Write the structure tokens for this entry.
Amino acid sequence: MRQEAQKQQEFGAYIGLDWADQKHVISLRSADSKQVEQCELAQKPEALAAWVSGLQQRFPGQRVAVALEQSRGALVYALMGYDFLVLYPINPKSLAKYREAFYPSGAKDDPTDGDLLRELVAMHRDRLRAWVPDDELTRTITLLNEYRRDLVGRQTALTNQLTGLLKLYYPQALGWMGGLATVQACDFLQRWPTLAKVQQATLLKLRKFYTAHGCRKAELIEQRLQEIKVAQPLTRDGAVITASVSMVQATINQLRPLLESIALMEKQIAELFSQHEDHDLFSSFPGAGPALAPRLMGAMGADRGRFAAASEVQQLSGIAPVTVRSGKSCWVHRRWACPKFVRQSFHEFAGQSIRQSAWARAFYDQQRQRGKGHHAAVRSLAYRWIRIIYRCWKMRVPYCEETYCRALERRQSPLARVLAAQT
């Protein structure tokens, strides 16, 4: 009983905070009282600061447990600056299941969610993990990586739109202007938006254009010039050409600043990542490169106590499969409830590692021979890579391909025999 009492007194108060865009619903119970207090808090920095200041005055020298249904966002960023607040992010699916246990009808309102969050942290915090924020540099790099990925997604949407437009009236440009997501492509289409325009240009101007944009392959330039000379229009419909040219120019006007923003953000990420203490560690993984190495670092974080085993990373990232058993049936499927960007980071890294790591290539080929599709084989490889990354991260040592291959030999792994046969 004494241990239980001490456990209950670990925090001065327990709070369930159900956040929303306009207001937050708060359910609070002091550790030395059974009375539950409820209030609403406007989504304003001043209101939040005043509420936190009141808590600090009411529970001086004590910590306060706060359960909320998110692990990042404006509210978390605002609360993480207060040392006396201990944040417990609750998985939305966990809260939904907990709600269903007490409200089978499916009724849902904000005060109830706040109460349930408070109950979870007060009664089951031994099963929850307090959120320990990474240092500022790590969080900055992580956020920049996510924002960069969002910009790349917009870039992809614009280039796909551009491809569709050009296929309507000017498909030859797709082979003459270089990569779609480049300044060269924007310049080409701005100067020569139609086949008629580019065929009016002199050969000297075209050669200067390609040379100025970094094309040094004389054979490729001559091939393009010859194709431009003999090309025939796909359509002569003036309505289609005029309308498509206007839309192409509008798309380019959106794509050009986006390319510049992505380049600036990538430069910023590279500069900050070079200052991080784990730079050499994550840069050592084959296939990581300047884009994926910072993303792997952000996925793991800087707190070495965050994960007790590699399996936690595998499950959190969604790389580990889920096995559902009922009676004689067994169903293994991909994990759906997971941070998608983290899963994507490990998946893309595993795909790139196939090109630069001999054992990764052998493992991937082995999975394909067993009948797995490409993405299933890459997920299996990512599952294995996470164990390696976790070990290096935990021990703070860079990855070494030779060391891992020797470990495969010592364990008499089938991969070791494949590698031996290849060499």
The first helix runs from residue 2 to 8. The two ends are 66 Å apart (CA to CA). Strands lie at 13-18, 23-30, 36-42, 64-68, 85-89, 322-326, 329-333.
